[in-house]
Amino acid sequence: MTINNPIKTVSKFHYIELVYNLAKKDLKVRYKTAALGFLWAILNPLLMMIVLTVIFSIFFRIKTDQPYSVFVLTGLIPWAFFNLSLSSCTNSIVDNSNLIKKVYFPREIIPISIVTANLINFFFSIIILFLFLLFFKIRLTYMVLFLPVTIALQVLFTIGISLLTSSLNVYYRDIRYIVEAALLMWFYATPVFYPVTMVPERLKTYYFLNPMAGIITSYRRVLLEGLPPDFYMFLETSFTTLAVCLIGYVIFKRIEPVFADLV
Amino acid sequence: MAAIELNNIKKSYFIHHERKMIVKDIIFGFLKRKKVKEFVALKDISFKVEQGESVGLIGDNGSGKTTILKVLSGVTVPTRGSVSVKGRVAGLLELGAGFHHDLTGRENIYLNGTILGLSKKEINEKFDQIVEYSGIEDFIDMPLRKYSSGMFVRLGFSVAIHVDPDILLIDEVLAVGDQSFQGKCLRTIEKFKEQKKTLIFVSHDLNIVRHICDRVILIDRGEVAAEGNPDKVISRYWLFIGEKRGIARMELEDLTLIFNNGRIIFLWKDVEITKGLSGYTSLRSFVKWFDSTQVDWKVVERDEKRILARGKWRGLPVSQTWEMKICGEREISWNIEMEVTEPVNIAKEQANIMLSDKYTEWESLGEKKGTMPESFRENINDDWEKVYSTKAAKSFIKLLGFKSDGTEYPSVTFDFESLSEEYEANIINSNPAYKGRVLQCLKENNYSRQTYAPGKYNYFSGKFSVKPE
C-alpha cells in the first residue's frame, strides 16, 4: 500500500512567486474596494491609540517612560498585524475552497500569502510609527538593527499559529469563532496598553510563555528605549515560537491531504 | 513509457451529517457517537496511459470520472493505491481558478497563470497570445465583474491552454462557451494531440469523445467497466446503462434499438451505427431549434415489441409521444404525436437520424443514387450540407451498408409511406462538430400556418429498416 504522488509543478522558487502574487491580489482587492485604501489599515490602531491614551493617561494613570500615546502605538501596530493575520488566516482554507478543489499547490501557501499581505501593510504602518517617534523626539539608536529580527520572529510565530488554526478550522468550523474570542483575551495578556514592568515578577516566567508578550516588549526596547531585546526573554520567545511553528506545520500537513474533500 | 499509471486506486469520502463543531464535540461528544457515512467514489481503479495517447473517460454522473481527474491533478489524495504521473499536468477543469471579480483581466491572467504553474517570465512572453486567443482585447483592463459569463470562461480557458503542459486533463469544458469558441477549443485540443501530448478527456458528449480519443475507458460506480477502442466501448456504454427512467431497449437478432432520452440509437452486432444525436426530432420555434435530446423523457410503456415514451419540452408548451414498434423483420415504425398546450409558433419540424460517417453511398426512390462528399465543411458554424432532396411522400432515403475492417454496417432505410405532400426528405452531411450522415424528414410551415393552436397533432410517422447488405 503505497501512496506516492510525485505531482509537482516547476521549481520551489515558483511557490515564492505564487505567495507574492496571492499577497498582491489580497492587497489590491482590499484597496480597490475601499476608497481610502491603506488608511483603513492604519486607522484602526490610530483610533485605538486615541481611545487608550484618553483612558490610560487621563482616567487611570499608567506610568510610562515615554509619552503614553507613542508607547501604546508601538504595541498596537504589531498587535494589529498579528490580530488581522490570524483572524483572516483561520478561515482562509475554507474561504479558498474553489482554489483548493481545483488546483494543486502546497496549501500552506494560502496562510503564508495572507501573512505576507499583512506584513506589507505592517511596513507602511511602521513608517507612520516612525513619524510619531520623530514628532515626540524619541531618538532612534543603532539598536533599531534588532527590528528586523523582531519582525521575523513575529512573522514566524504568526505563520505557525495560523497553520494550526486554519487547518483545524477545516475540521471544526467553529475554530474561527474560538480564535476571535481568544484574540480578545489575548490582547489583555499581552503588554500592549500597559508596560511589562507592571506584571508581577513571580508571574513573569509564565507570562512570557506568550510569544506576543516577548515580541511586543522587544519592539518597545528596540524602538523606544534604545536597548537590545532582553536575551533570556528573547530566547524563551524564540523557543516557544519554534515549538508553535513545528506543531502548526505538522498538524497542517497531517490534515492537508483531505482539505479538498472537506472544504 | 507510461505517462500516467494508476494502481488500485481507492478513494472514499467520509460524509458527516452535520458540520463538526469543536465546542459541541467537547460538550456532547462523549455522550453520543457521530454518524459518519463512508462514500466510496472510486472502488478500485487501475489503468495506464502511454505518452502521447488520448484517452476518454465516460460513464454516468457520479461514476467517478471527475474524481479520477482530481486524483491525477493532485487536488485530492487517494485513500489507497498509487498514482504516478510523469510531466507537467494542467487541467481544463479549473477554468478561472482564483479569478477575482474586482481585478482586471490583465491582473487575473497573471494571478491565474501563477496559480496554474507559470512563472512571471512565461506569462510575460505569452500574454499577448493569451489575450488574443480569448478574444477580449478591449476588456482586458476592465474588472472581471463587468465580464459576461462567456468572456469569463474564454479567459479562463485561454490561460489554461497556454500553460503548455505535458499532460492535459479536460473535464466537460466544451459544454461552455458559444459554438465558435467550442470549435476553437476543439482545434486547440487537436493541436495538442498532434504535438504528442497526453490527453485525458472526460465528456458526456460521446461524439466528441469518439472524435478525439484513441482509447476509451468506461467507468461505472468507481470501477473500470470496459476499456479499449472508442467505438466498441461507446456502444457497450449504450448497452450497459441499463433501464432507467428515460431509457428502454429492444432487440431484433443482430439489431438493438435503444431509446435514450429523446434519441434512438441503433447497434448492429453491438457496434453503434448511429452517431451524435442519433434518431431525434427538432422543432424550430421563432429563431431557435429545440431538440428532443434536451427534453425530459419518460418511458411510459414497454414490452418486447414496442416502446412508448413521452417527452415534455422545456421552454416550449409542447410534448411529444413517440411510439417505436417492431413491425417486420428488422423494421421499426416510428410514430410521433405532438401535443400543444398553449398557442405556439413552430416554423420547421424535423425527424432525423444521424448515422456513422463510415457510410458513403446513398439511394432513393426511382433508382436515384450517389456518394456522400468525403470531407465535411470546415467551419463548425456552417450549415449542414444538403446532398439530395426529394418529396418525402411515398418515397424513401437510404444509406447503403458495407463491410470494412472486419466490421459490418447494415443498410439503413428511412421510409415515409403515409406522409402528406408537405414533407421533404433530405440526405445531409452534418457540420464538422458531429461528422455524421443525416437522413432527414423536414416540414416547413409557411408563415400563415406557423401558429399551432392547443391540441393534438400527428407530427410524423415513418419507418426504419435496417438490413445487412
TrEMBL record, chain A:
GO terms under cellular component: ATP-binding cassette (ABC) transporter complex
InterPro entries recorded: ABC2_TM (IPR013525), ABC2_TM_bact-type (IPR047817), ABC_2_transport (IPR000412)
Residue span, ABC transmembrane type-2 domain: 36-255
One Pfam short name: ABC2_membrane
UniProt GO molecular function: ABC-type transporter activity
Main location, first listed in the record: membrane
Coiled coil, from the record: none
Subcellular location: Cell inner membrane; Cell membrane
Keyword Cell membrane: yes
UniProt keyword annotations, A-Z: Cell inner membrane, Cell membrane, Membrane, Transmembrane, Transmembrane helix, Transport
Membrane topology: Multi-pass membrane protein
Record flagged with keyword Transport: yes
Single biological process term from Gene Ontology: lipopolysaccharide transport
Residues spanning the membrane: 34-62, 68-88, 109-136, 142-165, 177-196, 231-252
Similarity-based family: Belongs to the ABC-2 integral membrane protein family.
Name by which UniProt lists this protein: Transport permease protein
UniProtKB/TrEMBL annotation, chain B:
Record has Coiled coil as a keyword: no
Keyword Transport listed: yes
GO molecular function: ABC-type transporter activity; ATP binding; ATP hydrolysis activity
Classification via Pfam families: ABC_tran (PF00005)
SMART domains linked to this entry: AAA
Residues in ABC transporter domain copies: 21-246
UniProt-listed SUPFAM superfamilies: P-loop containing nucleoside triphosphate hydrolases (SSF52540)
Sorted UniProt keywords: ATP-binding, Nucleotide-binding, Transport
GO cellular component, one term: membrane
Transmembrane spans: none
Membership in a protein family: Belongs to the ABC transporter superfamily.
UniProt name for this protein: ABC transporter domain-containing protein
Organism from which the protein derives: Candidatus Schekmanbacteria bacterium RIFCSPLOWO2_12_FULL_38_15
